[in-house]
Amino acid sequence: MRTTTWFPAVLLMAAAPMASAETLTPYWFDGYDLSQDAGTANGFSSFNINAELGAPRQGGPLVPTAYVTNTADPTNDFRHQLFPPSNGVQPLQLAGDGFLPGAAPTLASPDLDFSGPAGADVLGKRVTFSLDAASLILQPGNPASAFVQAGVTLGSANPLVAADAIGGPKFGVLFIEDTFSGNGAFLQFFNGEGLVQNLIANPAGFGPMDVQIDIDDPLDGDPWNGVGSTVFEVSVNGMPVGAPQEFGGGGLTSNYLTLLAGRDFVSNATVTHLFDNLTVFSGPAIPEPSAAGLATLGLAGAAARRRSKP
Q: In 3D, which of 84, 81, 175, 95 has the Cα closest to residue 131?
């Protein structure tokens, strides 16, 4: 786990190629840190995904933001846990519940649409988080043979949408560790109609990773306004992976985020995935030309035409 401090005024230069000319600002942040040990006088359980909402756990204008889950009770379920300071590592633990064939993945989502205006900027132009996929597999059989996955869904119109769910516009990424069929650590990309890229090599291998997803519109810099398109670019540990994915026809207009934790598909064992430091950034759109700017361009064009005459 990285130790992260929230700095509202800090500007970060974009690293991915699509956003290289922009300055992006962290707008909302969740470090999942508890200030006290679970079970002490504060009464919070580490099973409560919404324990101690607000600062310093979260930062930015959208604090506090509560999570919804696809489990029965977001405030008391082993599938999503927050660790107390005495643990030394404080990520969000999402457990893909196993031991039952066909068990659904564990889904957790900040119940907020991270798109649209953010002051003079556009919200939701970058999402970053750290992930340790399959940090623990409670596998009673052969621990060297497993197929496990964690993931994230962006751009959906609703929370709790799995990355690989067919139907509805969205962009999904699955981070897979496969020692069963020998594919190793790789990624899959999904759109609303299913799998679009498979077996994308993961530069992090089987270790922890820092994930960055840049979201933009080449036309006007606003990926959520229903004009132009929405383009997603994924990087792992600073390295671009896979091909950029473009949603045309006006692009996407909503941006609910969902984190996914899957079981071991070989033994149906429960698998623990660790998410940390989820951050949503804002950034500028391409400014519309002002009337003065258009007039200047017109004069410059007229001067150029005059110079071109014999």
A: 175
